[in-house]
C-alpha cells in the first residue's frame, strides 16, 4: 500500500522530518517526507499494511517534545515505479493552508548546555549553540517552508563537520536549520562606545564581557529577539547609574540569575514557579522577595515592591555571561524606553544606546522578528501572563466558535498585542507596546505583515477599540477603507469579558473588569465595571462610583489629582503639603480645585485610579513613573497588612461607593500604619465588586463570574473575589492563557467581531 499523509500543527523547526525519517526506517517503510509552504508536512510511505498502521500510531504518540500534531489526513495513492529507500526531500512551496504554524523560540536544552561547558566538545564555549530541540525559531524565520535559506542563518555556509551532523540521521542536529559552530556560524564581537572591536573571537568577546560586567560596567547584549541592557544586579552603584542613564527612577528591572540555587537565595520559589523557571520557555517569573533580599541583590532592582521578576539563562550566550565572573544575578532589561520597541539592529543599538552603556556585545546574525521576554506569575495557583511573548508566540489558542472569515483585531492602546483569528485558531502577536508612539506603531504594522505572510491569510473582518483616536483604531479604519468594509468598534471592557470567555470556551458570564482606563459607551473613562453578557452583547449592570478625573491623563500620573476630585476642599491642606509633587507647585493645585468647582472634568469609574488615590493618601506613591506604579506599591504595602477598618462596602443602585472609602482612609491615615490601611482599601474594593457581581449572577441565573483587567494581577483582589464567588456556589473564571491586562484585549475583540458580523 502507498499512503499520502498530511500532518498539520507545529511540525516544522521541531525535528519532525528527522523523526519521520527514523520512524519510517524502524517500520521498514519507503517513501519521502517534505516540508510544505503552509508550515505543514507531507509524507509518502510505501510498505506492509500492519507496519503502516503502527507508523501512524507512533506518529501520533511519539512526536518530538516541541512538536504539536493537530491533524493527520491520509489518502491512498497509486504509483508505478518502486521507491528507493526513504528520503527527506527538498521543501515544496505547496500550500493547503490548514493552519500549521512555526514554533516559538525555545530555551537552550540540557544537552546543548552540557556541550557548551565540555572542553572536549567542538562547540565548547560557542555562544550560538543550538540543536533540533532548542534555539530561536519565531525570531529567525523570514518565510515558509522552514529551511535555512529562508532564515537569517542563510548567510552562514555550513562547514563540513556541521554538514556531517546535519545529514546524519543518528545525530541530534540532523536537519537542524540553526546548526552552527565556531568555524562556520555567527560570530560575537565586543565593541567599545565608539564601535571599535575589542575582541578577536566569539569566545574572547564573551570572556571579556563577563569580566567587564564583574568590574561594574553596563553592557548592551544582543540576544535572539532583541537587545538587553545588562549589569551586575548585586551592586547598588551600577544599578543606580543605569536608572539615572535610562531615566527610569522606579520601574522594576527584570534580572537573570545564574541558576535556580542563586534564585532561591533571595526569593521564595514554589514548585510551580520552579517548573516555569526551568521550562523550555524560561520566561521571566515574578517571585516574592525573601526578607533578607538586600543581602543578595541591590535594593534598587525593584524599589518599593515585594516582588521581583527573574529568569534563567535561555541561550548559550546568556550562560557565558556568567562564566568568567562570580556574579549571581544580572539586571537584564530590554533595551528600549518603556512602551517603545526593543532595539534589534546593531547599528541602531550603537546609535541609540551609546549614552547608556559602556560596551556592546553584538553578533552578526540578523533578528527577523523582535520578541520581548514573556513575564508570568502564579496567581491563585494558576499561571498568569503579564506579557505573552517569547516562547509562547506564535502558538495559537483554540477557540470554540470557528470563524467563517479571517478576523484581524488591532487591540487597544497600551501593552498592545494584535490577534488574527482564522477558523478555530486565534493567533496573538508578540508584545508590541504602547502604540501612541510612532515607532511602536511601525513595529505593529511590520509584525502584522509578517503574521499575514506566515499564516497566508488576508483578513476580511477588522475590529478595534471604541476609542476614536487610538492609533490602532485609525489603522483598523484605514484598512477597512481600503477594503471597503465596515470596521467593528468594540468597547474595551466588553473585549476583556470576551477574551476571558473565549479562553474558557464559555458563552456568558458576569465579569468584573477592573483596570485603569477604557473608553465607555457614554464617552466617560470606564474601569471598574460589572458586565453581564456574552460575545454578541453585554449589559453594564454595575460599576464603581463616578469620580472627577481632573486633567484627564494627568490624573493618572499624579494620583493626588484624583484625591482632590474625590475629597474636594477637605484635601486642600494635604495637597499643599505636597506641592513638590506638582510640576507647577501651588499654582497647579489652585487650578485643580478651580476646575473641580467649575465642573471642568470628565468622570471615571476606574478601579485603578481609586487604588492610585489610596496609595497617594497613604504616602506610598505620589507620582506614577511607570504603568501601574501607585497600585503596585499599594499591593506591596498591603501584602503584610490586615483589615483594620472593617468597612462594609456601601452599594446603592448598583454603584459601589468609593468616596466613603477614600474619606475613611484619609481620616485614619495617621492612626493606623499604611500596610493595614492599604489592605483595608483593597478589601473594601474586592468585597464591593464581588458582592455586586454575585448578586447579578444569582438574579440572572448565571453560573460563571470572572475577573479581568489589569487589577486582576493584584493577588489580594483576585483571592478575595474568587473566595466570595465560590462561597456563593458559583464558578470563578480567571485568565490563564492570555494576559488579564490589555495584552489580552485583542483576543476578545476578534471573538466579538466574528460573532457580531455573521449573524
Ligand atoms: Zn539543544
Ligand atoms: Zn560548523
Ligand atoms: Zn483594560
Describe the structure.
The chain is built from 23 helices and 29 strands. It has 759 residues and is an alpha/beta fold. The strands form 5 sheets. Strands 6, 7, 8, 9, 10, 11, 12, 13, 14, 15 and 16 form an 11-stranded mixed beta sheet that branches. Strand 22 and strand 23 form a beta hairpin. Helix 15 crosses helix 18. It binds zinc ion (3 copies). The site of one zinc ion has 7 residues, from helix 13 and strand 21. The site of one zinc ion (ZN) has 7 residues, from helix 3.
Features:
759 residues; alpha/beta; seven-stranded mixed beta sheet; 29 strands; 21% strand; globular; binds zinc ion
Outline of this structure?
With 759 residues, the protein is α/β, with parallel strands linked by helices. Helix content is 33%, strand content 21%.
Amino acid at each position: 500500500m502507498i499512503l499520502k499523509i498530511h500532518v498539520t500543527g507545529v511540525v516544522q523547526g521541531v525535528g519532525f522530518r528527522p523523526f519521520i525519517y527514523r520512524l519510517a526506517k524502524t517500520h521498514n517503510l519507503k517513501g519521502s517526507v517534505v516540508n510544505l509552504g503552509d508550515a505543514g508536512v507531507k509524507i509518502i510511505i510505501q510498505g506492509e499494511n500492519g507496519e503502516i498502521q503502527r507508523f501512524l500510531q507512533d506518529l501520533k504518540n511519539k512526536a518530538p517534545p516541541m512538536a504539536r500534531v493537530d491533524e493527520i489526513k491520509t489518502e491512498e495513492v497509486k504509483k508505478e515505479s518502486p521507491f528507493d529507500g526513504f528520503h527527506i526531500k527538498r521543501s515544496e512551496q505547496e500550500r493547503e493552508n490548514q493552519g500549521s504554524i512555526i514554533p516559538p523560540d525555545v530555551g537552550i536544552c540540557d544537552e546543548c548546555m552540557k556541550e557548551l561547558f565540555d572542553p572536549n566538545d567542538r562547540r565548547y564555549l560557542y555562544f550560538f549553540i543550538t540543536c533540533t530541540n532548542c534555539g530561536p525559531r519565531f525570531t529567525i524565520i523570514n518565510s515558509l517552508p522552514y529551511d535555512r535559506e529562508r532564515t537569517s542563518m542563510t548567510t552562514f555556509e555550513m562547514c563540513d563537520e556541521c554538514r556531517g551532523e546535519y545529514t546524519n540521521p543518528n545525530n541530534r542536529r540532523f536537519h537542524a536549520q540553526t546548526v552552527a559552530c565556531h568555524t562556520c556560524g555567527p560570530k560575537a564581537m565586543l565593541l567599545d562606545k565608539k564601535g571599535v572591536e575589542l575582541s578577536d573571537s566569539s569566545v574572547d568577546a564573551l570572556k571579556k564581557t563577563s569580566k567587564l560586567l564583574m568590574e561594574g560596567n553596563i553592557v548592551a547584549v544582543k540576544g535572539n529577539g532583541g537587545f538587553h541592557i545588562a549589569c551586575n544586579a548585586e551592586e547598588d552603584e551600577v544599578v543606580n547609574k543605569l536608572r539615572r542613564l535610562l531615566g527610569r527612577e522606579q520601574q522594576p528591572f527584570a534580572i537573570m540569575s545564574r541558576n535556580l540555587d542563586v534564585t532561591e537565595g533571595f526569593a521564595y520559589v514554589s514548585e510551580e514557579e520552579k517548573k516555569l523557571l526551568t521550562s523550555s520557555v524560561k520566561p521571566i517569573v515574578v517571585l516574592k522577595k525573601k526578607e533578607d533580599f538586600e543581602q543578595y541583590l541591590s535594593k534598587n532592582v525593584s524599589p518599593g515592591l515585594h516582588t521581583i521578576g527573574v529568569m534563567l539563562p535561555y541561550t548559550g550566550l546568556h550562560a557565558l555571561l556568567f562564566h568568567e565572573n562570580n556574579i549571581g544575578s544580572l539586571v537584564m532589561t530590554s533595551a528600549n524606553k518603556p512602551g517603545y520597541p526593543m532595539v534589534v539592529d546593531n547599528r541602531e543599538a550603537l546609535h541609540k544606546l551609546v549614552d547608556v552603556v559602556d560596551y556592546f556585545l553584538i553578533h552578526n546574525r540578523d533578528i527577523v522578528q523582535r520578541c520581548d521576554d514573556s513575564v508570568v506569575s502564579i496567581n491563585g495557583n494558576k499561571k498568569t501572563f503579564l506579557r505573552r511573548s517569547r516562547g509562547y508566540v506564535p502558538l495559537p489558542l483554540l477557540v470554540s466558535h470557528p470563524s467563517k472569515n479571517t478576523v484581524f483585531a488591532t487591540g487597544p492602546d497600551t501593552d498592545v498585542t494584535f490577534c488574527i483569528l482564522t477558523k478555530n485558531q486565534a493567533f496573538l502577536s508578540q508584545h508590541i507596546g504602547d502604540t501612541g508612539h510612532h515607532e511602536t506603531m511601525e513595529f505593529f504594522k511590520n509584525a502584522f505583515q509578517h503574521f499575514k505572510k506566515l499564516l497566508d491569510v488576508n483578513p476580511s473582518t477588522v475590529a478595534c477599540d471604541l476609542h476614536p483616536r487610538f492609533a490602532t483604531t485609525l489603522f483598523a479604519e484605514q484598512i477597512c477603507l481600503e477594503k471597503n468594509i465596515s470596521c467593528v468598534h468594540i468597547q474595551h471592557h466588553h473585549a476583556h469579558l470576551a477574551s476571558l470567555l473565549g479562553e474558557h470556551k464559555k458563552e456568558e458570564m458576569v465579569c468584573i473588569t477592573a483596570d485603569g482606563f477604557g473608553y465607555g459607551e457614554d464617552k466617560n473613562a470606564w474601569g471598574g465595571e460589572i458586565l453581564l453578557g456574552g460575545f454578541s452583547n453585554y449589559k453594564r449592570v454595575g460599576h464603581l462610583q463616578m469620580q472627577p478625573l481632573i486633567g484627564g491623563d494627568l490624573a493618572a500620573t499624579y494620583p493626588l489629582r484624583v484625591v482632590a476630585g474625590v475629597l474636594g476642599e477637605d484635601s486642600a491642606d494635604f495637597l499643599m503639603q505636597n506641592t513638590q509633587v506638582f510640576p507647577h507647585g501651588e499654582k497647579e493645585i489652585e487650578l485643580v480645585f478651580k476646575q473641580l468647582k467649575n465642573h471642568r472634568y470628565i468622570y471615571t469609574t476606574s478601579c485603578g485610579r481609586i487604588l492610585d488615590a489610596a496609595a497617594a493618601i497613604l504616602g506610598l506613591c505620589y507620582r506614577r513613573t511607570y504603568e501601574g506604579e501607585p497600585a503596585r506599591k499599594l499591593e506591596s504595602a498591603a501584602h503584610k497588612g490586615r483589615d483594620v477598618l472593617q468597612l462594609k462596602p456601601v452599594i446603592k443602585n448598583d454603584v459601589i461607593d468609593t468616596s466613603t472609602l477614600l474619606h475613611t482612609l484619609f481620616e485614619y491615615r495617621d492612626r493606623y500604619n499604611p500596610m493595614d490601611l492599604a489592605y483595608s482599601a483593597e478589601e473594601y474594593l474586592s468585597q464591593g465588586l464581588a458582592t455586586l457581581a454575585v448578586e447579578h449572577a444569582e438574579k440572572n441565573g448565571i453560573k460563571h463570574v470572572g475577573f479581568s483587567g489589569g487589577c486582576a494581577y493584584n493577588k489580594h483582589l483576585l483571592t478575595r473575589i474568587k473566595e466570595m464567588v465560590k462561597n456563593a456556589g458559583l464558578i470563578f473564571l480567571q485568565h490563564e492563557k492570555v494576559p488579564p491586562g490589555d495584552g489580552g484585549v485583542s483576543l476578545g475583540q476578534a471573538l466579538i467581531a466574528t460573532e457580531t458580523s455573521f449573524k
